[in-house]
Amino acid sequence: MTHAKLSGSLLACKEAPATPPPPRQGVAAPSVALVPAAGEDARLLADRLKALKLPAFLREYDALARQCAAEGLAHWRYLSRLAEIELNERHARRVERLIRKARFPAVKSLDDFDFAAIPSLDRRLVQELAQCEYLARRENIVAVGGIGTGKTHLAIGLGLAACRKGHSVGFTTAAALVHELIEARAGRRVMRLERRLDACGLLIIDDFGYAPLSGAGTELLFEVVSRRSERGSTIITSDLPIKEWVGVFGSERLTGALLDRLSWRLHIIEMNGESYRLEHGNRRPPPFSTVADLPRRTMRLAADRGAP
After folding, report:
1. Minimal CA–CA distance to 99: which of 168, 158, 13, 41?
2. C-alpha dist (Å) from residue 41 to 37, 49, 58
3. Cα 225 from chain centroid?
4. 226-275 pLDDT, tens digit each
């Protein structure tokens, strides 16, 4: 009896499939053959990927499975590659949506900007701003210079760089923004417009001072810039030197208040001459006594901080 039981146990051991030992620590697991889905399985997989809104998975999984199988890659590497493709496509689609939403008059990259045409322009500063770190600090940019010096191109290029970093951007001219604000006020839609502007991490106001503004328009524009001082960054381009902005607002007091809001954290780029950077620390400077005092104080503070 004992002999029979022993023989049966030995026979069962011979017939049982061998269980492979677990892989040793530090040794990669063997790759698994990736067999493409077919028939009903393929249809079910496609339906589920559509439901999960994974279009890149749906389009690439079959070809990538064959490629990874041919390379002998493990299943997790296949999945990692597939996830990377999906993430890259999602980012690309988001950037496209942000660019459309920004309403740029044209898509112009800083790569196409002719720095050689303005030798005095600080290219290093522009490239630093293109990294978009100033947006996290809610810093502002003012670009001033004559007509045709590339201010709009520069502003669009910085806005495009912000979109590619995933930031929401809005582009408008000063005249168009004032017109929209006046219409919104007449239709009691000011709060809705303000919420839309507040949602922009970067608001670009082009051609400030190019067209005259009404008294009501300048006050509404001031409110927009004032609200943004703690909500997001603003880029303003103008053909007029800063000291002449008082002619646009018609009030030295209102102009000084606007410049005070902007200069809390400000980069000033003069497209006709030397570019320089004004950085304020945590201490907020007192309001400017006059508009004409801004350029002198800007240069003095920049010199004190060793700015170019």
Report:
1. 168
2. 6, 12, 13
3. 20
4. 888 888 999 999 998 888 888 887 778 888 888 888 877 889 898 874 43
Which amino acid would we find at residue 9?
S
CB 243, CB 263: distance < 8 Å: no
Q: Where are the beta strands (DSSP E) in 92-223?
A: 140-144, 169-173, 202-208
176 token code pair: 């168009």
The DSSP letter of residue 224 is H
What number of other Cβ atoms are within 10 A of residue 181's Cβ? 22
Strands (DSSP E) found in the chain = 140-144, 169-173, 202-208, 233-238, 266-270, 276-278
Residue 169 β-bridge partners:
202
Measured between alpha carbons, how far is 146 from 247 in angstroms, rounded to an integer? 17
Residue 108, classed as helix, strand or coil, is coil
For 59, counting Cβ atoms within 10 Å of its Cβ (0-12 exposed, 13-18 middle, 19+ buried), the class is: middle
**Residue whose structure tokens are 């106001």:** 205
Q: Which pLDDT tens digit goes with each residue over 1-55?
A: 444 444 444 444 444 444 445 544 444 444 445 555 667 777 888 888 888 888 8
In whole angstroms, what is the distance from residue 21 CA to residue 18 CA? Answer: 9
Nearest to residue 307, comparing CAs of 119, 122, 145? 122
Per the listing, tokens 């900007």 go with 113
